[in-house]
Design goal:
The chain is of the alpha/beta class and about 260 residues long. Helix content is about 40%, strand content about 15%. Strand 3 (about 65), helix 3 (about 85-90) and strand 4 form a beta-alpha-beta unit. Bound molecules: 2-phosphoglycolic acid (PGA).
């Protein structure tokens, strides 16, 4: 991380876990433990139906609430979907876009991801855009090409440096998500630095150094220090460990060092 130029952000991704009733207790527990997070922004990305409870529970603190997806259209006949305006109205600040589970199980492509990034920006939300390669792609040595495609495609929806201020990238190697197998600090740094270089090419050095780039994939209390020590790793997107308040708080603490 490099706090001089950009925010450090630790975001929890609860995925499809916890009812609204359970949310109240879990958020309260996290809140008690991270209340003093001085240097890093804490975000909890919860299931849609848990948003009201999470927003209510964090009213008097600096924890921000995020969603895990949104629909690319503003409104209309899209049964079962949720728009950016609906999220914004509930007090949501961030939305995760293009998580690998959305790409893998729900058919999201670079094109839909770009549309969703545009929708999030239009609704006044901040987007956490996920990119990352599968193990097969890493083994075939096409990681950088793949990341470049994903990043450039998402940035097509970001016209100027003004909108770029509301974009966060999360580098999440698919082989590291939920597997207990973390990327080494060097692997994470290499890709995060590469992502910043892509941003620099399009928007210039000044804008690029202000963008938060997270690492995600089995980040935990033990490996957070080393990952966050990398200059271009500005935080984490935390799955499993975000459901364990003690572990999540330890990661937040590492980000505050
Ligand atoms: P994990 O998930 O921390 O459980 O690996 C990260 C993510 O999917 O965002």
């Amino acid at each position: 991380m490099n706090r001089r130029y950009r925010k450090t952000i630790i975001a929890g991704n609860w995925k499809m876990n916890k009812t609204a009733t359970e949310t109240k207790a879990l958020v309260e527990d996290v809140k008690q433990r991270v209340a003093k997070s001085k240097w890093c922004e804490v975000v909890l990305c919860v299931p849609f139906v848990d948003i009201p409870a999470a927003v209510r529970q964090t009213k008097d603190c600096r924890i921000a609430i995020g969603a895990q997806n949104l629909h690319e259209e503003v409104s209309g006949a899209y049964t079962g979907e949720i728009s950016g305006a609906m999220l914004k109205d509930l007090g949501v600040k961030y939305v995760i876009i293009g998580h690998s589970e959305r790409r893998q199980y729900f058919g999201e492509t670079d094109q839909t991801v770009a549309k969703k990034v545009g929708a999030a920006l239009d609704a006044g939300l901040k987007a956490i855009v996920c990119v990352g390669e599968t193990l097969a792609q890493r083994d075939m040595d096409v990681t950088m090409e793949l990341i470049a495609l994903q990043v450039k495609s998402a940035l097509n929806a970001v016209p100027t440096t003004e909108e770029l201020k509301r974009i966060v990238f999360a580098y999440e190697p698919v082989w590291a998500i939920g597997t207990g197998r973390t990327a080494t600090a060097e692997q994470a740094a290499e890709v995060c630095t590469f992502i910043r270089a892509l941003i620099r090419k399009k928007y210039g050095a000044r804008a690029a150094r202000g963008v938060t780039i997270q690492y995600g994939g089995s980040m935990n209390a033990q490996n957070a220090d080393e990952l966050l020590a990398q200059l271009d790793v500005d935080g984490g997107l935390i799955g499993g460990a975000s459901l364990k308040p003690e572990d999540f708080a330890a990661i937040v603490q590492a980000a505050n060092q």
